[in-house]
Amino acid sequence: MEEGFVRPLGQRSVEALRTAGLTEQFLDDSTALYCFADSFKKRGSVKAEASLAAVELSGHVTRRGFLLKQGHQRKNWKVRLFVLRSEPSFLHYYDPSKNDILPAGGFSLRGCLVSALQDNGVPAGVKGDVQGNLFKIITKSDTHYYIQAPTHADKMAWIDAIRKEI
Hints:
Residues 60-166 form the PH domain. The chain has helices at 11-19, 22-25, 46-51, 152-165, and strands at 6-8, 34-36, 60-70, 77-86, 90-94, 105-108, 113-116, 134-138, 144-148.
């Protein structure tokens, strides 16, 4: 599993992959299903599968919740389920309208910068319908992620949790 040769298929196995570490993903249960990674294909996620290391998903989940993320290409806002993991520190996001086990995207938090954005104006680079409670994450490779939380308290809680992982 750590090397990415085997992937879970069953519902319990998929949920274990999203919420637990590698030690809990192999379930000694007749309902736990697995396949070899090269035969695993699901709804156009082949590209994500090839580039996603199993180690990224092995960390302990420290925070999860729904946030709005601005798209990189179209600059529209979409609801995503964000999962923050530690050891190793990664932030992944999932499309809640799909039942994919692989994230829609994500990145390592090593070398990232996270900051709250002022709610009294739209910063450069942010487009669309902005409701406030914005924060920004800049990755080591200089990719800018603009994220909206539902409340100011949620925004600050996410920023604090991410800073602990950096």
